[in-house]
Amino acid sequence: MFSIRLADLAQQLAEKDLAAQVQGDGNLIVTGLASIQSARAGQITFLSNSGNREQLINCQASAVVLTEADVPFCQMAALIVNNPYLAYAYIAQIMDTTPQPAQGIEPSAIVSKQATIGKQVSIGANSVIESGVIIEDNVIIGAGCFIGKNTRIGTGSRLWANVSIYHEVSIGKCCLIHSGTVIGADGFGYANNRGQWIKIPQLGTVKIGDHVEIGASTTVDRGALDNTIIGNGVIIDNQCQIAHNVVIGENTAIAGGVIMAGSLTIGRDCQIGGASVINGHMEIADKVVITGMGMVMRPIKKPGVYSSGIPLQPNKIWRKTAALVMNIANLSQRLKRIERKIDATPLPEAVNK
Predict the structure, then answer these.
(1) What is the pTM of this model?
(2) How far is residue 167's CA from residue 258's CA, in Å, rounded to a whole number?
(3) Could you list the active site residues?
(4) CATH topology of domain 110-306
(5) Which CATH architecture group holds 4-95?
(6) What does the DSSP assignment read for 196-265?
(7) Which residues are in the UDP-3-O-[3-hydroxymyristoyl] glucosamine N-acyltransferase non-repeat region domain (predicted)?
(8) pLDDT, tens digit, for every residue of 194-218?
(9) Cβ atoms within 10 A of the Cβ of 75, count?
């Protein structure tokens, strides 16, 4: 079972440039991490919102991470930090017991003799590594993965089971790709010849930077001519569609179920809410936030928060709202006719004269 002294936990946070001051017994042994509602003796929890201070009264945790302002409300051992939620993220990393996707190279893995395999590489059962592939040091490839010809995977990257990487893809250092994800599949490119769809071979590839995480069952299409590019530090959730020639700037975060059409450029430090749909062949500026279920049909040229969609309503009210929306053109014409009548009517003062 995992265990660590509270003082040692504070030291490890300090090594991550997050100062943590111990209040109470630094020799207290912490064996787990839990929410403030479910924590039990031996566990540590965190308070990230001072508005929830009353939850500390009944909290059973042995220690809590909080800010100095919340210390007077705490009756247990504590780690005092400026950002409890960030501390929680680091503590979760320290206590993470998730097993590696693979250890060593399984005999059932098929590795081409023309592939270059670095030091301390692990390849899971039934994985296929084709010719020309370069796998750098400390890469871990889970069971059932496919790595296509001439692909490169950077140092320290990890692929969970059943990830498919097509040919000539480049993945940077310390990336994490979850199960079922497909990188480098053909973009949706066709020409129409008198009703018959003629496939356009996708001749570009996918370039992924360093420290990128891609969730489960996400698809990143290869470029048609130019490349699809995902910048350093980008995080992408599960079941997203990234179409051909999309460019995503550094440190952008994309929530689950987002669909991006082709030749879209997204700036740095953006946040895209879940289930959003973004049109192609346009640009979105740096530091743009699109809230969940956003429908983006035009370029966004300035940083800011953008929203669309109709909030959930009881069905009867929604049906009335929908009927009004469907009739909005007619209502607009009627309003314009009324405005023209008002503009043409003399004012009372003019009549008196």
Answers:
(1) 0.90
(2) 25
(3) 244
(4) UDP N-Acetylglucosamine Acyltransferase; domain 1 (2.160.10)
(5) 3-Layer(aba) Sandwich (3.40)
(6) EEEE------EEE-SS-EE-TT-EEEPPSSS-EEE-TT-EE-TT-EE-TT-EE-TT-EE-TT-EE-TT-E
(7) 28-93
(8) 999 999 999 999 999 999 999 999 9
(9) 11
